UniProtKB/TrEMBL annotation:
GO molecular function term, any single one: ATP binding
InterPro entries cross-referenced by the UniProt entry: AAA+_ATPase, ABC_SmlMolc_Importer, ABC_transporter-like_ATP-bd, ABC_transporter-like_CS, P-loop_NTPase
Protein name: Molybdate transport system ATP-binding protein
Gene3D superfamilies xrefs: P-loop containing nucleotide triphosphate hydrolases
Length: 296
């Protein structure tokens, strides 16, 4: 795929339980980026994703990818989802219940390629479930099938609508790794809808923060969320989302259960059994923060 940037400038009137809201989004996303659409429920994230996919039409505006116009209200252009070469993973995965894992995945291909389908099955650790029906799969297995099916068509753009929201927290870390794997397999431009800060810090190269239908911030997770939210509290439990090696110590970014972000320093004797995704407790002793891993 040639170097292409998604340029979005769209408007759509939405009706919610809180009344009418105008969704007005103007943003650009570069080829190969993993960008997260972040915001509370009802902010307009999923509607934006569906407009990019061609599943929902804006009231007005333009969606342009490189030199290709996907939507333009003034000249009546509105390409179908099939013409946009996207892979879409829905919140409920939307697997075909009467098809096996293999049949679901190969169905996603524009031109049937058994070898490619089997390769995706192996890459996502689904070989033992190849002929199993969706009703016999766990939530995590369904999510992997949905990712594999979305990648089967070799999409230029991978769109993920809160794919982890229905899963137990114990599965989230491993399945965040599956999303990173899905992104890296094809280097598709990836847009993920989320309102979970742990996912944002683990996955996002760029965050597009949306509130009440408007973009309020665009940038890297650290730039958007850390400036005013670093807490001095040292009696917390949270998940490690980033481990950064400094000269003589490590800097841990921790997201608490209250969606608060904390930076904590750690040393070799504290870090040896810690990894991104681990749940830890940070507490104080003589004014120095100490770190203890929490067993699930």
């Amino acid at each position: 795929m040639e170097n292409r940037v998604i340029e979005i400038n769209v408007q759509k009137k939405l009706v919610s339980a809180h009344g009418t809201m105008l969704l007005h989004i103007k943003a650009s996303i570069c080829q190969g980026e993993l960008a997260v659409l972040f915001g509370e429920s009802g902010a307009g994230k999923t509607t934006l994703l569906r407009m990019i996919a061609g599943l929902t039409s804006p009231d007005s505006g333009v969606i342009k990818v490189g030199d290709s116009i996907w939507f333009h209200s003034d000249v009546n252009i509105n390409k179908t989802p099939q013409q946009r070469n996207i892979g879409f993973v829905f919140q409920d995965y939307a697997l075909f219940p009467n098809m096996s894992v293999y049949e679901n995945i190969i169905f996603g291909q524009k031109q049937k390629n058994k070898a490619h389908a089997l390769d995706l099955i192996n890459k996502f650790g689904l070989a033992e479930f190849t002929h199993r029906m969706p009703e016999k799969l766990s939530g995590g297995q369904k999510q992997r099938v949905a990712l594999a099916r979305a990648l089967a068509r070799k999409p230029d753009f991978l769109l993920l609508d809160e794919p982890l929201s229905a899963l137990d927290s114990n599965f989230r870390t491993s399945l965040q790794n599956e999303i990173l794997k899905a992104h890296s397999i094809t280097n598709a431009t990836t847009l993920l809808v989320s309102h979970d800060l742990t996912e944002v810090f683990r996955l996002a190269q760029k965050v597009i923060k949306i509130e009440n239908g408007k973009i309020t911030a665009i940038g890297k997770p650290d730039d958007i969320f850390l400036n005013n939210q670093i807490s001095g509290k040292v009696q917390i439990t949270g998940n490690i989302v980033k481990i950064q090696k400094q000269d003589t110590f490590y800097l841990l970014t921790v997201v608490t259960g209250m969606n608060q972000i904390v930076k904590v320093t750690a040393y070799d004797n504290e870090i040896h059994d810690l990894a991104e995704g681990d749940k830890i407790m940070v507490f104080s002793k003589a004014f120095n923060p100490l770190i203890m891993k929490v067993q699930n």
